[in-house]
Amino acid sequence: AAATLPTQPAQAQEIRWDREADVVVLGAGAGGLPAAIAAREKGASVIIVEMNFDIGGRAMMSFGGLYIGGGNRMQKAIGVQDSPDAVFADWARPEKPMGRYSDRAMVRTYADNNLELFDWLEKHGVKWEAYRGTPDRLNRVRTRLNVVAWPNEVTNPSRGSGYVRPLAQTARQMGVDIILKHRMTTIHREQPLSGRVTGITAIEVDDNFQPTGKTINIRARKGIVVATGGSADNVQFRTMFDVRLTEEYQAENSGWSKRNADGEIAAMQIGASLGATACQPTQDDNQINKGRMG
Fold first, then answer.
1. pLDDT digits over 82-106, tens only?
2. Each residue of 193-233: pLDDT tens digit?
3. Closest C-alpha to 158, from 56, 259, 233
4. pTM of the model
5. HSE (side-chain half, CA atoms, 13 Å) at 74
6. Distance between CA atoms of 194 and 76, rounded to whole angstroms?
7. Please, which residues have CB within 8 angstroms of residue 145's CB and are 6 or more apart in sequence?
8. Nearest CA to 7 among 221, 284, 240, 270?
């Protein structure tokens, strides 16, 4: 864990900025790409910093299933009755393993934005395949919507490419600059322990995530979005949230997308709270079973 700790932020006046944009997004995956597009829609210039040699994060290696419902046109076409209130009720039940630990205010926001999210993703190139399965007593699959895989995908033939590739294409067309093979090491503030966020330092890495020694300082004129993918590979960090998540458990897809808590640690160093972001096993399906941790 000590090896993943970013260095102490330097004072802003000591930093020589190599690049700058209104918004700097850390991570070009399932969270970072939509964040970048949304910022561009509001007129901000955007730079994404991604550690991997390609975009996509863990979403690239996924089966491309998103939990989106609320009563959209595809649900209506197959006779599924749904609404934002029903989505909230499903995901706020204490007996539902996948959602019972979630912050209720976040669940409400998620539920109320399902319909807009469906249209927004479709507008930016994501194509829908079909809803998965039939509802069970906990309605876990009522909102499980699969995307269409990206054609001729060289990284992973499963459907996850159908989510990240179109969003990356849209982001680039909108003028988002995606810097690959750079790992964020530090989030800077005006002063080491006070003031607004001013930018980041990132170090160049090779295809195996090993540093090359070259660094870059990127100024963020308006803000930073941390979408680095989590902390599941950092045993010391994840056991703060759940003592059962010891080194015997291997985080899925770690060979492709490292989850070393860089974003969380850097944010905590400048005073961020990790409330409602606990690394909890859902105890559902194969999330924590036989050495695998979803």
1. 999 999 998 888 877 777 777 888 8
2. 789 999 999 999 999 899 999 999 999 999 999 999 888 88
3. 56
4. 0.88
5. 19
6. 51
7. 65, 66, 67, 68, 69, 74, 118, 128, 129, 130, 131, 132
8. 270
